[in-house]
Request: fold
Amino acid sequence: MSFLKRITITALAVATLAAGGAARADEQYFPLQSYRVGPYAAGGTGFFGGFIDYMTLINTRDGGVNGVKLVWDECETEYAVEKGVECYQRQKSHADTAAWNPLSVGIAYAMIDGVTADKVPLITVNHGRTDTTDGRVFPYVFPLLLNPYSETSGIVNYIASKEGGLESLKGKKIVVLYHGSPYGKETIPIYDLLAEKYGFTVVQIEVPHPGNEQGAQWLQIRREAPDYVVLRGWGVMNPVALTTAQRNGFPVDHIIGNVWSNSEEDALPAGDAAIGYTAITTQASGNQYPVLQEIIKTVYDAGQGNLSDKSRIGSVYHNLGIVNGILNVEAIRIAQAKFGNRTLTGDEVRWGFEHLQLSPERVKELGAENLFHSINVTYDNHEGEGYVTFQQWDGKKWNVVSDWIAPDWALLRPIITKSSEAYAAEKGLPIRTSEDADKVTQ
Amino acid sequence: MDWFGFLFLIEVTIGGLLSGVMYALVAIGFVLIYKTSGVLNFAQGAMVLFAALTFVSLVEAGVPFVLALLISAAIMVALGFAIERTVLRPLANRSPMTLFMATLGLSYIIEGAAQIIWGTEVHRLDLGISNAPFQVAGVFISTFDLVAAAIAGVLVAGLTAFFRWTRTGLAFRAVADDQFAALAVGLRLDRTWATVWAAAGIVALVAGLLWGARLGVQFSLSLIVLKALPVLVLGGFDSVLGAIVAGLAIGATEKLAEVYLGPFVGGGIEGWFAYVVALLVLLIRPSGLFGQKLVERF
Reply:
């Protein structure tokens, strides 16, 4: 999007808010706490670009969701928590908010109490606090598709599949190189637990933020001589990890990236050092999927696309934004089926998310077959049992190299429940039942 | 310590020293400006980002490598002159805090302008320098880091020659020694400052290219100032030699601390350990190891 276009849209958004911030009766509003400048702008422009492109497709092709137009405005956070909270305070005055999608662990953490009081869903697709998966304790928070523990389990299962099965993990050594932040540290206990269960050794090494110098960490890794390194990075930490691994002679095809180390922006700057690098994902990249083709035809060919660089259509972050758009729109559609084809309250949309069950067949109908697998959200499982796949970088693009893999949810669920129930006890929160979940504020 | 452990110690030390050269590259830009004008230029990191983004965008637009380098150098010189003329000169004789705040503001302006002009995408920068390591007696040494150290060496030699054997360089040294005496003998302070800002722009370009090849050209380049600050405190804000020696010392110390102390405290200590060293030096020798001692008489 050009600078002038962005200024114009921002001015229009400000004018709309100044005019009272009320949505029309046939509109559903999405506040977008986006980040298009700053250190994480590449991820922000891709994700929010994809989200907006999908909403534009729904408005243009279908006239909205059952006649209800989707509207949004953007508030720049630069990925900073204080700016994200400012945006929340400013945007929450708008009527008929469907859901928040800040794409930031820090901002999401800061909003949990607020959105719970407001009764508006907070979507943390592929990230967030693991225990918010337990919707009995966190009714308005949805770490859709993949929480950090499921990601860990998916990665360990993938390594096991490469080694010949879970039994073959015994005696192996895995180093986890993690970002020095709450996000990076979230999976420390689960790696320890899985190491104990499957008999491998795990060594977890922290990289201080932002991660632009990792010589010491990779020397430690060389000394440890692990079978695999799991890269749990973010931003600049990822390409630096790959180039430093090459400088230390560690084979790149034995580095497995997590879901925030899996984009073009992570691999491309590393050049040859990234060729053969593999990473987990919940959504495949590429623009061959019918929904992507429709976006190109209906949105971009009409000059309404959000990405200024069309070569980024179908990139990892763009596709994640599109999948996020599908999940938000389908939650509204499901809620409309119960409450009527009209503008919904935040609590009604919450009900929609808690019944967001998209089978592979429904995903195919939406034009997203093989873009993502399926989702099965319930009132007490806000992650929704997303499947993962693995992709490998060939120097120019990602190629899918595995089937869809299910994390070990049965193993993880008791740990999540224990954590969420402890949180509920500490905060004096009630544990919801399915009957509670069906009570909706209109 | 066994033989393997000893080799590992050598490897960590060499890796740290080579990283330290990269820190020193950024620190030199600070030193040049501080030495002549007493300004701690917090915008040096933003200048590094701007320089690298300019170069890589030109190359991606199809401009040949050498021409892109020359155009980028010209732009950085122009930027240096413009900053001196529009920001620093009007604020001459203001307090150091005012000047520091001005450069802090400048930092945000340059970062914002760079992103508006060149966009926010992450770019690959290939300087044609191999990233593969080679082994000497079982110790891995990075080719890229060695070449970067050589380039830094050439840069320092060039700057030294410039300031020792050219008229402008002599003026620079005179201003650095005593601004009022330099003014009294007819030297133009504004010209000297403008030249130094231009030189800092060139240093930012060199640092931007080498760091950009390491990290990718992206916003995080501006954060490398955080690596330069402890180097400046240790070496002294007004010594090029101090920046080099302190860069080496900080690089080696933080790597040794991370590898040998880190495991006892949970790891991830190198980011702040450099500042521990800097703080200790501040307590013992406030002007740094090579900085000029300030003597004030009342």
